[in-house]
Structures are given as structure tokens and as C-alpha cells.
Design brief:
With 268 residues, the chain is α+β, with helices and mostly antiparallel strands. 27% of the residues lie in helices and 26% in strands. The strands form 4 sheets. The protein has a 6-stranded mixed β-sheet. Bound molecules: zinc ion (2 copies). The site of one zinc ion has 8 residues, from helix 9.
């Protein structure tokens, strides 16, 4: 996950073209990774949050056609191409981050730390019911006139994050967002904290709120850490405890034994 900054002036060009520009090349970014489109603080209106839009990363290429000049009236060395520009509940990463990383210090872009990425994924969680139902996205064998239930979706997302080479392109397209798995897991467990049993609270949009914790730190180089075995549905308080208190854990395959400040919890 990356954060890209731009001013209010250049925002329209970013959103319309699903493109960004930079002079430094970001490393360790893969197609499908989420890009947070952040507006520079000095160009925000009063009360406006810097991040209101996200998109998915497609590619980063040298701007040989001077496209940056055409879009923003200034030349940049690289063009970042994205897709699926979409609005999110506005936020400021500095208000939700876990780490002490100063994202404000970034020139054009910053890599989001795994612990902060988890917070962002919780914040922007895109409802599980928003995945496309278009028949042309489902391959024939999965179509069968029915929509996926949570268990089926979780199964397929687990397959995707195992990086099976033969995995169907169409399904990869459908489920490439990690937020889909977080949401499917939340739905499956009814937004109830797997540690303390707190049932989740209602948000102003009428949907329930819970968070997802990755027992083993999110690591894009090890896609299996994105799989459901590694995810726990938790309330905000237990989530903070998992990050900040004395925690020991053991994978029971399936489930976990977790000891938080000496108190043992067994999770099936
Ligand atoms: Zn809890
Ligand atoms: Zn966590």
C-alpha cells in the first residue's frame, strides 16, 4: 500500500485519469496494491480530510510521451497508472496509524507500514456485498446463477492468496482486494470480537463496525499471511491490546491460543 500526495489543483487530473506522477520510483509495489490519494495539507479546506479517494496500482513507467505535462502542465519522470478510482470515508492517516512513521514528511509518495496498512484496511473496508455480480466476471463453472456466500468467498480468497499459478484470471480480477476478505470474515463472524465477544457497534450508516487483526504481520512477499487462517475479527480495544500489550500466541491449526497480559484465550 502506498500513499501519493498531490495538491487540490492537481486532484482533478489524478482522479479523471487514474494517474499520478513522481520523480522517484516506488519499489515493492504490485498490480492491485492500494494507492491512497492524499491531498497536501496546505491545500485542504477547513475540516477537509486529506484522503478521500483510493485506486488500485497498475504500473509505473517512464513518462516518455510527456503525459504528465499534458495532464498537469509539468513534467515528471514517472507516470503511475491506476484503476478503480473510488471514494472512501475521508480520513487522515496520521489520526489512525499505529506506528510513529511521519507520513507528512513524504515528498510525493510514502510506503504504508504493515501495521498502519491494517488500520487503513479496517477504515476503508469496502462492503462485502459490493463485489461485482456481473455474469461476465464469473467464469461459467462458478456462475450457476447464484452469488457467493461468505464461506465460498473466503475459500476463493484463500486460494488467491496462496498464489496458485493456475488460478482463474477472472476470479483473480474479482477478488483482488484484500478488503473483500476482511469483510467476508467480519460477516462470517457477525462482527463479534473473537477475543472478548463484544458484538460490534452500529455506525451512522447503519452497518456494524469491527476490525480485523493479522496475527502474523501483513507481508506482501508472503501472500499467505493475507489468508483467513491469519485473520481475527476483533473489537477496537482488543485490537489495540494485540498491538501494544504483552501478547504470546500459538497457531493451533485451525485457531489460535492467545495470551494477553497473562490471560489466555482460545480461538477456534
Ligand atoms: Zn474485544
Ligand atoms: Zn492488528
Amino acid at each position: 500500500m502506498l500513499l501519493f500526495k498531490n495538491s487540490a489543483e492537481t486532484m482533478e487530473g489524478v482522479l479523471k485519469n487514474a494517474k499520478h506522477a513522481t520523480n522517484g520510483k516506488p519499489n515493492d509495489v504490485k498490480p492491485g496494491d492500494i494507492i491512497l490519494i492524499a491531498q497536501t495539507k496546505s491545500t485542504l479546506l477547513t475540516g477537509q480530510k486529506p484522503i478521500r479517494w483510493i485506486m488500485d496500482f497498475v504500473s509505473c513507467e517512464e513518462d516518455e510521451d510527456n503525459l504528465s505535462n499534458k495532464i498537469w502542465g509539468k513534467h515528471w519522470r514517472y507516470i503511475i497508472s491506476g484503476e478503480n478510482v473510488r471514494p472512501v470515508e475521508p480520513f487522515d492517516i496520521n489520526e489512525i496509524k499505529m506506528t510513529s512513521k511521519n507520513y507528512g514528511a513524504a515528498q510525493t509518495f510514502a510506503v504504508i507500514e504493515p501495521e498502519d496498512e491494517e488500520e487503513v484496511l479496517n477504515w476503508i473496508s469496502e462492503g462485502v456485498k459490493t463485489y461485482p455480480h456481473d455474469t461476465d466476471i464469473f467464469s461459467a463453472e462458478f456462475k450457476e446463477g447464484k452469488t457467493l456466500d461468505h464461506d465460498e468467498l473466503i475459500k476463493r480468497l484463500d486460494l488467491k492468496y496462496r498464489n496458485t499459478p493456475k488460478f482463474k484470471e477472472t476470479i483473480v480480477e474479482l477478488i483482488e482486494r484484500p478488503t473483500l476478505l476482511s469483510n467476508a470474515i467480519k460477516e462470517k463472524y457477525g462482527y463479534k470480537c473473537m477475543i472478548c465477544g463484544y458484538p460490534g457497534f452500529l455506525k451512522k450508516d447503519g452497518k456494524k463496525y469491527a476490525e480485523v487483526h493479522h496475527m502474523i504481520e501483513l507481508n506482501k512477499k508472503a501472500p499467505e499471511t493475507l489468508q483467513s487462517w491469519n485473520l481475527l475479527v476483533v473489537c477496537p480495544l482488543c485490537h489495540k491490546k494485540l498491538h501494544y500489550s504483552d501478547v504470546k500466541s500459538e497457531f493451533l491449526d485451525p485457531g489460535w491460543k492467545i495470551i494477553i497480559n497473562g490471560e489466555e484465550h482460545t480461538i477456534k
